[in-house]
Every structure is written in structure tokens, then in C-alpha cells.
Amino acid sequence: MRTALCERLGIELPIVGFTPSEHVAAALSRAGGLGVLGCVRFNDAAELDGVLSWMDDNTDGKPYGVDIVMPAKIPAEGTQVDLTKLIPDAHRSFVAQVLRDLAVPPLPDDTDERAGVLGWLHSVARSHVDVALKHRISLIANALGSPPEDVIDRAHAAGVPVAALAGKGEHAVRHVERGVDLVVAQGYEAGGHTGEIASMVLVPEIVDAVGDRVPVLAAGGIGSGRQVAAALALGAAGVWMGSFWLATEEYRTTMPGSGAMQTALLDATSADTVRTRIYTGKPARLLKTRWTDAWTADDAPQPLPMPLQNLLVSHAHNRIHAADDPTVVSMPVGQIVGRMDRVRPVAEVMAELVRGYEEALARLDKTR
Amino acid sequence: MRTALCERLGIELPIVGFTPSEHVAAALSRAGGLGVLGCVRFNDAAELDGVLSWMDDNTDGKPYGVDIVMPAKIPAEGTQVDLTKLIPDAHRSFVAQVLRDLAVPPLPDDTDERAGVLGWLHSVARSHVDVALKHRISLIANALGSPPEDVIDRAHAAGVPVAALAGKGEHAVRHVERGVDLVVAQGYEAGGHTGEIASMVLVPEIVDAVGDRVPVLAAGGIGSGRQVAAALALGAAGVWMGSFWLATEEYRTTMPGSGAMQTALLDATSADTVRTRIYTGKPARLLKTRWTDAWTADDAPQPLPMPLQNLLVSHAHNRIHAADDPTVVSMPVGQIVGRMDRVRPVAEVMAELVRGYEEALARLDKTR
Description:
Chain A is of the alpha/beta class. Chain A has one domain (4-365): Alpha-Beta Barrel (TIM Barrel). Chain A has 15 helices and 11 strands. Chain A has an 8-stranded parallel beta barrel with strand order 1-2-3-4-5-6-8-9, surrounded by 5 helices. A 3-stranded antiparallel sheet of chain A has the order 7-11-10, with no helix packed on it. Chains A, B: Keywords: Flavoprotein, FMN, Monooxygenase, Oxidoreductase. Chains A, B: GO terms for molecular function: monooxygenase activity. Chains A, B: InterPro entries: Aldolase_TIM (IPR013785), NMO (IPR004136).
């Protein structure tokens, strides 16, 4: 399973794994892929700095990357308090009522609540870039469009390639024109922010659109070696997987209290996701639960634009997380959730991807 | 590009092509695939009989199949006039107003208008089965769920295998339990009736669900050899392609006046489709045009259930077809429409699929 991407990034397997967990990311890199740490959960740059130092020490000297959310069009300045004033009262009342209806308990009085949305702001994202470039990172990815020009320039000055997600051919071309080194073709079936064009159509379309200029990673619907083989058959130089690492042992190490979430994921079929704007304000695929159902009721308000929607629901997310109820999870995940049937170590998932890939190629050999 | 499906159906390439055009179907079979003629457009059994006799004589003795629409739950009896009474006046007025707004002219007074929906009725579908079994068909497919038990029994008694479309693993298992011989895994990106699970996830899921019991064809998003290779990597025994044949020279031979439709298809990108209930009452993917846009207006009514919606719009479809305006086409097509860039003979498309498949396998070879 070697492609040109392996040379480019100094990795053994063309499998890039996005995860908010440093334990998952490190295990991915140690297993021969590229672990990419999602930074949006770090509101405090010093905390991210500490975690990246841990990554430096726990990846056996192998490459790893970071994912920083840098949307093109959100308020660049303004504190959280200012933005909060833009949220209509009716939206707040709706969320409060839904939490009551779903019997999600309030947080204990002594909870030190996370502030939620700060990682989405330009100022915070830039502090992530500052911190990340002090560590031996091998990739900066942006989960929302092209990174800002100055970020691309600084990454390149440090010899770090930049990746960006694209859901359409024209987005991919724009990324390349702006200097992006790696395009992630994110299909409809993917978890999190996603467009409407499915991987089977999108991946070769983006491969053709960018030509030889940059390698393309296929994202969306990948959780087996057969699917890696399909992605490479479509012309991708590798795969970008996010959802599948949620059902790993290492994820729980970083994210205590994710038992209910993992239970919900193991129980879900591929039909149990929904693409909705309720998580961030932009269409994102989430696990379908009583929480997502509540937003489809006749009296439910329209979700707010980014970043207000995430601000609106961030306290609810904290309560939902603490409630530990598999039926009221709020979690981005792709349709590949139907293939998650047990919680395993990252290295075991990687080994199975390789095995399944080789079996798929052996099967294709027989067609000649 | 040989799989077990080739032995099973007596074909050279595991490419099954669904098309309402006998000229396309015959060309597909002559080129080594299996042409499957969609019968829903034949309200008159004698007309179908004549067309199948033509197929017998124009396929060089090679196998071909038929596709008959046999929904499980629609009024089995009742004439078209009875059903027509169930259509609300508000829906009729809306359709009439949209046609005026879109400047779609009325039909000339002397038009011998087709009756539209009859092919969807059980009685008509059964007459199609009667007629088809008199010809040397190699497959009966049902584009809507499992065929009725008596149809399966009669096909098997005649030595003809039966195929059914599935958009979920559980549907595929139900088909197999009812005696279906071949499952078509139809992904979200497909044209016509389609579910929400994309091919990358759906195909291996259905392959695993049915196991060794029956072969699985991948449908949805296939229009290049790379995509055929991806489908086979996912575990499919072959592919089922429908949309792609709309942009062939042979299609125009059967369907005079399809110039505007073909123009619209060539102009469309993969983002220019929409999954909507306006064509038949069930979710189906159509080309996005001013006609589909009209149904998303705030004052547009909800589509009616099958088969009433198709009855409601069948006269509109006739007027739209006659109008020959690429911006007001009503046409089922998948996201692969973005790859349709010129009108070609079927044999040329087939040759390119084979070439692209071999290139994809050669590329995969280099990853070992």
C-alpha cells in the first residue's frame, strides 16, 4: 500500500487519520500512517503546546500533523461575549426546552465549563499555527476551505505542507491556486462538514481537476481495506479517515466519559446519520439521535449561521456529554459508522486496513 | 475485467446497462455487456413485444435483459381515471402555473398523448413479464424492491434470473430471502429512485450482508473504468450503469427530440442534480433545472405519494419534452452527469471503461 504520498510525507502507509485525540494521533503515526491532531478543542494555546510536546515524545520520531479550523468568512475579531449577543432568545429557549424534554441534567454547580467556540475564530486559529510551527509537525490541514494566505506562507517557510478539504472540483482548484499542497476530497458520506457529492463521483472529479499538481486524499466512507483500495482505484494518493478512530481504545484514553458516545456509534447503522446545520451552522453529518431529531420538529428554529450556532449549542453539548446517554449524543460521524462494530486499538484497525487492501487487490488480480 | 458474473450471465464484461432505449440496450449487449431494457414506457404490451423481437434480432445472439417496475404497495387495480380523482386540485393548479411561468407551450391539438403512469401498475407490469418471457431474455430486474413472488417463480421456471435494487443492507437480505438472484446496490449518488447511503459505504455493506448467496452489482456514480475498478475493489461482481447511456448516439435514435435533454446533461456538473419526490412520489435523483427548482418554492405543494405524483406530472412531462428547452428538462440522472462531456456511441463508452479499468489496476499494482 505504497503511493507517492508516502515519500512526500515520510510515512509507510498512505493513511491519514484525523482525530481530536493525541493518543489516537500518536498511535496512528506509530503504526505507519499520519496522525493529524484536530486543534479546535484547544481554546488555550499553552494547552495545545503541552499536547504537541507530548506528541513529539510519543510518536517514535515519526511524522504527525495538525488540523486547524480556519473558516474564510467569520468575525475575525470580537470576543465570545459580543457574539453571544447575536443569538436570538427564541433559539436559547428552544435549546433549553429540548434539553428538558430529553431529560439531560444540568451540569453540577462546580463545573469548570469549556468555552466552546473559540477555536473557530481567526485569532485563536492563528495562535494554534504559532504553537504548531514550534513543533516538528509534517502537515497543517484546514478543515474549512483554503487556509489564509499568510498561514500558507508561514507553513511553507517552515517547510510544512498544507492540506485543505474540498467538496467540489472548483474548490480543489482554488485551493491549489492559493498554494495548498494536498487536497482532501471530502464526499457526502463523510462525517462533519460535507457537501452533497458522494466519494465515488467526487474523488476522480477532484483528481482530474487538480491533475499532477497535488496529491488527493479520499475522505468519506473509508473504514476497510476494500474502501482504501477503491479510493486508490479512483485515483487518490491516499485516504483521510476521521470517523473510524472514534471507536478506538486510545480515543477513550484522551476523552474520558466517551462511553455513551462509543456505545451509540457501535449500535448505529449506516442509515443512522443526518446531514444538518445544527452543529456549527454549516451542513455537517452527525450521528442521528434524539438530539438531532429534536431539531427536525415542526416548531424547531432554523440553525444560526457559523459561528453562532456552535456558540448556541456549546453549553448543551457539555450537558449532553456529561449526561452519558447513548440516545442523546451530539457527535459528527460519517456513514461508515455502520461498519464500527467494536472498540479496538488503533494498531489493530491499521493492520486490518492493510490486510483488507491486499485481499481486495488479490481479488482484482483474478479479473484479468 | 472478468468476474463470476460473466459466467453467470454469459457475458464478456461485468457491465450491466439499464436504459429505456432498445438501441442502447442492443449496443450494450453487442459490446459484451448486458443491455437491460427499461419497460415502464411501454403501456401497450404489443409494442413491447415488437421491441423485444427487434432486440432478439439485433443483439448478435448475445444476452440481454428487461427491467420491469413492480412496486410492492401501489393500487394493484383501478384504472387511470380512478386514480386521477385522488389528485387535489391545488396540485393541478400549481403544475399548470409552473408550466406557464416557465413558458412551456401547450401540446399541439393533434398530439396523441402517452398515458404516462400505466407501466407502474401491477397489471401492466405483469403483462410486461408475460411478454418478456416469450423472448430470449437473460435477466428480469425490478427497479423497486423485490419482485412479487409469482413473478420470481415464473422467471425461475423459465430459467431466467431475477435482480432487484437495494439501498440498504436489510433490503438486500430480504430480496435474497425471497429468491432474488442478483442484488443491485444503488447508492445515494445514483439517478432515479435512490436512498441516502452512498456507494462507497453501501456496496461493501450489501456484499457483506448477502455473503456468497448472490452476486452484487454496484450502481450509482459509475461512468469511468476507475469507478468500475473501485466498485470491484469494494466487492461487487459487476456494475449497473443507467445515467451514462443517456449521452450516447444510440439513445437519440430511440428517443427523437432528446436533443435539449442531452444538451442539458452535457452542460451539467456533478452538483447539478437533486434528490426529490416530484417525479414519482418516491425520492429520486433528477437533473436540477428550472422545473425542479419550481418545486422548492415556498408556495410549492408537497409531492403526492406514488403513483399519483407521476400521474400528476405526466402531462407536464410531455409538454416539457416537446418544449425542447434545456433549462426545463425533467430527467432522472445521477451525479455522474458531471462526467458526461460528449455524445458518443455505446461501443466507444464501453471501450473506454475497459481501458480505464486496466489503467486503474496498473496503478494499483504499483502500490505493492
